[in-house]
């Protein structure tokens, strides 16, 4: 059986860079084992499998959503993936599979049912809502983190910000780094990070430094070897979590219903610069986060599933 996979770069800047995800539009034709096999063969950080609601009917299903999207790394299924979501809905729009150019949709994920806006003007832009931010109070061992990053302890943290586990769909350790030079010098101890990630039940580390010329721009790096991703060039959920973290820790003082936008630059040390836009607001004490960006389809591939593999 052959399965068509689109190779889509999401969170691109000027139609370059980005993070490549696999997108399978007819996910209803295969089971989760087959999805994992495809994701492993592609070996992208994530592959998304799209299941339109009316294509896989379930009894007594009263949930309101348009598409179910399942996300797999080369080694396991994950609850949510920002860049693969952006890639998925860009592909649906590009292939003319959405009923109109500018549309709001709901995607069902293991992180919940989340809103996705597709805006088609000169270019297609996709903006996705994140799950409600969750902030962990557990203390993190700065000595271990410095060993994982191969940095000195005093290079971690700035402006009263300290490492914290945050989730807008996936649990990451958010680590503020004093400056971009220190961020660039990170050399991850993969074995130590894998063990620490499993101990804390997190996906990995999202390290960031502020742009010295603009406190609404950040340089970020993301490491998740515990789920098969040594470093990722664009991570939507992690940058959404970053903005939630900054708002929660009063880096920005927002009034009720005021919106803050940040731009995160990622992947430059991998030779694959990406740009992620995150938008955050507070309403009645609750933080709401959206992330978005642009994409392009790099190519497509037909993957054959052999009976012995399944």
UniProtKB/TrEMBL annotation:
The active site is at 46. InterPro entries: Phenazine_PhzF-like (IPR003719). Pfam families: PhzC-PhzF. One of its GO terms (cellular component) is cytoplasm. This is PhzF family phenazine biosynthesis protein. It comes from the Bacteria. One of its GO terms (molecular function) is isomerase activity.
């Amino acid at each position: 059986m052959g399965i068509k996979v689109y190779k889509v770069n999401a969170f691109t800047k000027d139609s370059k860079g980005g993070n490549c995800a696999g997108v399978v539009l007819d996910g209803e034709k295969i089971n989760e084992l087959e999805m994992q096999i495809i994701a492993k063969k592609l070996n992208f950080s994530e592959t998304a499998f799209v299941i339109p609601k009316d294509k896989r009917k379930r009894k007594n299903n009263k949930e309101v959503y348009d598409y179910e999207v399942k996300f797999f790394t080369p080694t396991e299924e994950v609850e949510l993936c920002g860049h693969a979501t952006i890639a998925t809905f860009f592909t649906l729009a590009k292939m003319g599979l959405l009923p109109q150019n500018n549309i709001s949709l709901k995607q069902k994920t293991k992180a919940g049912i989340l809103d996705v806006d597709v805006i088609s003007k000169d270019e297609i832009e996709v903006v996705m809502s994140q799950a409600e931010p969750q902030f962990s109070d557990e203390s993190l061992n700065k000595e271990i983190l410095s060993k994982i990053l191969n940095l000195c302890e005093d290079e971690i943290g700035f402006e009263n910000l300290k490492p914290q586990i945050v989730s807008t769909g996936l649990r990451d350790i958010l680590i503020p780094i004093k400056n971009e030079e220190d961020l660039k010098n990170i050399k991850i101890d993969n074995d130590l990070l894998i063990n620490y990630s499993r101990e804390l039940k997190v996906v990995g580390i999202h390290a960031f430094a502020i742009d010295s010329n603009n406190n609404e721009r950040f340089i970020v790096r993301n490491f998740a070897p515990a789920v098969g991703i040594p470093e990722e060039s664009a991570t939507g959920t992690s940058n959404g979590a970053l903005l939630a973290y900054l708002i929660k820790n009063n880096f920005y003082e927002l009034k009720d219903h005021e919106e803050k936008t940040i731009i995160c630059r990622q992947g430059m040390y991998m030779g694959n610069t990406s740009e992620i836009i995150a938008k955050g607001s507070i309403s009645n004490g609750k933080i709401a986060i959206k992330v978005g960006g642009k994409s392009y389809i790099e190519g497509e591939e037909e993957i054959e599933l052999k009976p012995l593999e399944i």
